[in-house]
Design goal:
By secondary structure, this protein is α/β, with parallel strands linked by helices. It contains 15 helices and 6 strands. The protein has a 6-stranded mixed β-sheet with strand order 5-4-1-2-3-6, sandwiched between helices. It starts with 14 loop residues before the first strand and ends with a helix.
Amino acid sequence: MPINSGRTVRPNLPVLYLDESGNTGDNYLDAQQPVHVLAGFLVPEGQEPRLRQLLDALREAGAPLECHEGGAGELKSTKLLRAHRWARATAKTVSSLCSEFLPVSVIVEKRFFAAVKVAETLLHHDTNPFISAEQRTPAARTELAEQLSRLSDAALKEFSRAYANPSADAFAACIGVMKDELAAQGQGHLVRLLQGGLDALPAIVAEEQQEMELWHVEHPRFPEHRVRAGARLALDAFFASLTTLDRVLRHVHPHPANIVYDEAEEGRAFELALWAAQEGGHVRHIGRAIPGLSHQEDALQAADLLAGILYRVAKDGALNGVAPTDLDAVLAPLVSTPPASVRIGSKAFSDRIKVIAAQAAIRRQRAGRSEGDG
């Protein structure tokens, strides 16, 4: 039974086929997987055969497939992006898909998202007496998250553990770690703000424990399921991505879209987050959410290819100091071109992705001149 099945939805709505890459569940701040991507294509009614035709061209060229018992082979980005030849062919196919179908994506830098949650949890004006009126504006909140995202992995993971299992002792410990780091960096204003959070711990803990109940209600498709506390940041990231996606859809299409997503293990987290967003009235432009199997749905395979490419380039952008690779030069244009793409990340993260895309453009120009000279 698809979620939100009680809602009346016209059957001829466009369908947004979605996949994700980079979800690490309990270990949300996995340093080796620093970004989370939700991406896919908005496919008008009756256009699935054309999408299949574009993917068939890649298959017929001999692309390596992931085999399933009793089923057809599946195009998977994890397999295709390993070899330069097939990465180029995949980028060409996805570029063709982007020219005929609307690509939609949300890219989340995990460290920045964790910093956003630090600000929302410990530095919110409802509980923290040291937050001034000037620090309540969206621009000021973003700047706070920017500054907090420079905390060490250890400090952000300490917060993640407290956020997953809210208690006064856990939050006091994580605030202590963050204050020590920020004091050493000369960030006295942030130390003072965190002291305000420490003073307000009873109210913060009560509110966070109440928020945790959101993920512990019975779900209509998974009545036996209880979300592991450690996955709270991951679920919040799905929730934020889906509400962002809803705003994107309002701008690009006049009517709500149904969603088909890959019913893998990650599908439960996706569906739980969407269900919570719909129940709370946070999304209005998403119709039904329908689970599907990627090896049976060509459009889900297309979504996987797009998500895999976006993840690959965004990951290199998030790993500060990692030089762009030749593969980035092939794939980067697909990160900068989607019109319905949103990045939730620090300014430094966005700047590094822009640099990768710019370097890719220079390489393409040089390659074009070399071919012309030849």
